[in-house]
Design a protein that fits this description.
The structure holds three protein chains of three kinds. Chain A is an alpha/beta fold. In chain A, about 35% of the residues lie in helices and about 25% in strands. In chain A, the strands form two sheets. Chain A has a six-stranded mixed β-sheet with strand order 6-7-8-3-9-10, with helices on both faces. A four-stranded antiparallel β-sheet of chain A has the order 2-1-4-5, covered by helices on one side. In chain A, strand 7, helix 5 and strand 8 form a beta-alpha-beta unit. The N and C termini of chain A lie far apart (about 45 Å). By secondary structure, chain B is mainly α. Helix content of chain B is about 75%, strand content about 0%. Chain B has six helices and no strands. Chain B has helices spanning about 15-35, 50-75, 80-110, 120-140, 145-175, 190-220. Chain C has eight helices and no strands. Classes of the chains: A alpha/beta, B mainly alpha, C mainly alpha. The interface of A and B includes residues 16, 18, 59 and 60 of A.
């Protein structure tokens, strides 16, 4: 039974050694939504993403993927793909081996073929058989995206995926994310690049000190980048991480 | 996980602790000055009045660590973790006393510093495990992770003890030692028995008092 | 549509990945192997083989060396996951946490087994043990000892990698647990090498088997608590 709600955060809270990182976050994303999440360093964006992915246990509240609590059902994690600024790759293995391993572990039928397809979608076919440690930072980042996509996740979480990418790489990534969004993949994108984030997203939010200070829906005419950027600057002005 | 209610800070040094120290002092003085010498072993035997009570108290403290470890993983209550820490530190103190007094007693009586004595070998393991527990505590920065790791170690250590016991016992039965004297569990005449009992009780009270004081210290730190 | 693998299938996939990484670099295996052979040789020179029969020394040497070599091998087990946060990818996968433990323990077992496969014959040759007896007697005991070592060591390796003193902590935590394994293995080996009947070694063998059973289960259950959350 498919539900239209892809991601739901319900009163999410997380503290580390009694320091709160996320302090009560609620939102709902429908299938195909793309949430661009902005905020200064230390605002709790990475922690929020990790909570939704099921990597962290909330101190209160719950993160639901397609209405299933990720912490209670390990199989629900199969719906998530996660890209962070660390590659999550094994340097001694090749790009293909890394992505194939991820496919196998997710239970993808024909993991080899799926891995090749995923690498091709990021123009990495030529680098398939090169050990990851020999690739550039940007190339590693793209392999990491391939790894996150190989099992066709319904929800894609991206934590500053553009870091380390050059102009061409960024362009390719944006094109890929656009096509995924059009296919109905739900996304949360953490980025410092306001223009890029707003171009892709259907929702834009600013996170400050562990809570969502604002959440805007995309107007029919598209986001006013300049207006958003200036209001973001004034919001974030007094909250440097 | 938020605490249900903050623990109330209390005085670390209070009447109970002083009473416990006084009790132990009494027991030691009685042992040294007011208890007759044992014929065969002479003065060295008096260490016995400290060695055995310290061992029993050490087992008590470390038993608390094991139980609190289970409690923590089951209930996620930070108080269980704090109590385990307090008991572990006190336990280390008492096991050190056992390991120091043991050889001091053994050398004049048995002619060797160390032997396959059950208690001594088991206590040595407890010392290493407790030291590892405390080093682990110091090496983890995140509170929740620290408590979880130590609880796991506490439970695994409790599972290990029967194996140590069995191994040492099996080794002993296969290698009977040439012992000149057999100072086993004493058939003590009344005077000595009272001293021994006083020692056991005094050390146990001190153990509890120290754990309580250390626990309060930890509560004060966390508050 | 993806169908996530079950516990043992997932463990097998992870074990294969660990071994693939190991085969690609080989550095850990070679350093552990060289250390083991050096240690065996050093003990040989340290003891006067005319004073004590080498057949009596051999088991002790083997098990002590095996313990320290095992520790060296275990260090890398979770080290490879920490490098680029690859552990996160494992935690994101739709498999039970226990599969990570079992998979890594299995890979560690193969690693230790491979070292032993070379070290045992080397020991037998250097200490003049009857080769066939040595391998048939010591082989199974080594396998049982390895299971216990790997069960406990894999768990503590997972903990240690999250701490500041990882290289110190792994030995500190593990060695008290290795002692019953070493004692039991040593006692069984000595008797078997001396040609004693198996019944004499049985009590020690039982301790070893019981240890393995208890700690494989306990460590599998405890493993999820050693992860970041």
């Amino acid at each position: 039974m498919t539900t239209d709600v892809a991601v739901r955060a319900v009163g999410l809270e997380k503290s580390f050694s009694r320091r709160p990182a996320v302090r009560g976050v609620d939102f709902t994303l429908r299938r195909g939504d793309c949430l661009a999440l902005f905020g200064p360093n230390g605002a709790g964006k990475t922690t929020l993403l990790r909570l939704i992915a099921g990597l962290l246990k909330p101190t209160a509240g719950a993160a639901l993927l397609r209405e299933v609590d990720v912490r209670r059902d390990h199989r629900a994690r199969g719906a998530v793909g996660f890209v962070s600024h660390q590659s999550m790759l094994y340097p001694p293995l090749t790009a293909l081996e890394n992505v194939e391993f991820a496919a196998r572990l997710a239970g993808v039928p024909s993991p080899g073929a799926a891995a090749r397809t995923a690498l091709a979608s990021l123009q990495l076919s030529a680098l398939s058989n090169i050990e990851v440690r020999k690739l550039s930072r940007g190339q590693q980042q793209r392999v990491s995206v391939a790894r996150a996509l190989v099992h066709d996740p319904a929800v894609l979480l991206l934590d500053e995926p553009y870091s380390g990418l050059d102009e061409g790489g960024s362009q390719a990534l944006t094109t890929l994310l656009e096509s995924l969004r059009d296919k109905g993949v739900t996304m949360i994108l953490v980025t410092h690049n306001v223009a890029e984030g707003l171009a892709l997203s259907t929702l834009a939010a600013v996170m400050l000190d562990g809570t969502l200070a604002r959440m805007d829906t995309r107007p029919a005419t598209g986001f006013d980048v300049a207006a958003f950027a200036s209001s973001y600057r004034s919001l974030a002005g007094g909250h440097h991480g | 996980m938020t605490e249900s209610s903050p623990a109330k800070p209390g005085p670390v040094f209070d009447w109970f602790l002083f009473l416990a120290v006084a009790l132990v002092a009494t027991a030691v003085v009685r042992a040294l000055a007011f208890t007759p010498y044992e014929i065969a072993q002479g003065a060295a035997q008096k260490i016995y009045y400290i060695h055995v009570p310290a061992a029993l108290s050490a087992y008590l403290a470390l038993g608390i660590v094991a139980v609190m470890s289970v409690m923590f993983l089951w209930l996620h209550d930070p108080r269980a973790d704090r109590l385990a820490l307090a008991a572990a530190e006190v336990g280390l103190l008492f096991t050190t006393v056992v390991l120091v007094t043991g050889p001091l007693w053994a050398k004049p009586i048995w002619g060797t510093w160390w032997s396959w004595d059950m208690r001594l070998n088991l206590t040595m393991f407890l010392w290493f495990l407790t030291a590892a527990y405390l080093v682990l505590r110091g090496a983890v920065d995140d509170e929740a992770m620290r408590a979880r790791f130590c609880a796991v170690l506490g439970i695994l250590a409790a599972l290990l003890i029967p194996f140590i016991h069995l191994s040492v016992y099996l080794f002993r039965t296969m290698h009977p030692e040439p012992i000149v004297l057999q100072p086993g569990p004493p058939k003590l005449p009344a005077e000595m028995l009272y001293t021994w009992i006083l020692g056991v009780v005094a050390f146990a009270v001190l153990c509890v008092a120290l754990i309580r004081a250390r626990y309060r210290l930890e509560v004060n730190r966390d508050a | 549509m993806a169908n996530p693998p079950g516990l043992f299938t997932a463990a097998w996939i992870i074990a294969r990945k660990d071994l693939a990484v190991e085969l690609r670099t080989r550095s850990a295996f070679l350093s552990v192997l060289v250390f083991t052979l050096l240690a065996i040789a050093t003990f040989f020179f340290a003891w006067d083989a005319t004073a004590v029969a080498s057949i009596d020394l051999a088991p002790g040497v083997l098990w002590v060396t095996f313990t320290f070599a095992g520790l060296m091998g275990l260090q890398r087990s979770f080290g490879m996951e920490a490098q680029d946060r690859a552990i996160d990818a494992l935690l994101l996968a739709p498999v039970e946490r226990e599969a990570i433990y079992l998979g890594k323990a299995l890979a560690n077992l193969v690693f230790v087994g491979a070292v032993l496969a070379i070290a045992l014959p080397a020991l037998a040759i250097l200490y003049n043990l009857p080769l066939l007896v040595a391998i048939t007697a010591l082989g199974p005991v080594a396998a049982l000892a390895a299971i216990g070592l790997v069960a406990v060591g894999t768990l503590f390796s997972s903990m240690a990698v999250n701490t500041r003193l990882a290289e110190l902590l792994l030995p500190m935590l593990s060695l008290p647990f290795f002692v019953p394994i070493v004692m039991a293995s040593s006692q069984v080996s000595t008797r078997l090498l001396a040609g004693r009947p198996l019944e004499e070694a049985m009590p020690w063998l039982k301790i070893l088997i019981a240890f393995d059973l208890v700690f494989v289960v306990a460590c599998t259950l405890a493993f999820p608590y050693t992860l970041e959350e």
